[in-house]
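We emphasize that the prediction below concerns an isolated chain of 205 residues; any contacts that depend on oligomerization or on bound cofactors are therefore not represented. The input was used exactly as deposited, without trimming of termini.
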Amino acid sequence: MSNQQYWDEVYETKARDAVSWYAPRFSTSVSLIQRVTAANKSAPIIDIGAGQATLVDELLADGFSDLSALDISGEAIAKSKHRLGPAHERVGWYCADITTASLPANRFDVWHDRAVFHFLTLAPHRECYVAQARDAVRPGGHVVLATFGPDGPLQCSGLPVVRYDSTQLAAVFKDAFELTDSALENHTTPAGKTQQFLYAVLRRL
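Result of the prediction step, given as a token string:
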């Protein structure tokens, strides 16, 4: 089964609020995006691994006008478009694997990713990811990234993950980005379990 087939099946068989990464609101992500854009509502933003998450809904409601969303699952994108209704036309959609996606160069001020990067357990895939972010984010722009922290789970959705502290994450991105901020946050899953996330802000050099 390919990665795309795997994630299509996840989104076909599980309700939006049943997956472990579900959150009713994305307050930390929105706050960090507001901060790094200095509340510039026309700043180009892309959400990597958007799934069925409502971050784009929240950013649209907050007045941001240049939004894009990428996910490997066409099923997830279709459901997100349905949820948004006519507003989905205000978002640019990419159905692609982030390690091989074709993205415009120097296009984005903010690259947001909550819980995709930690699925990249192989170094070549991580290198492709960093290269994609380097090429797509404008110099001076930011990556807002959330991964499992050092005490986070070892698996997610039945797949192995890599856990990070801020020093480890900064080292992976060091050739193109500098870490400017990080914090640990506990996420409560729909099943009532606690997962430790590391939120990091990295500035494009």
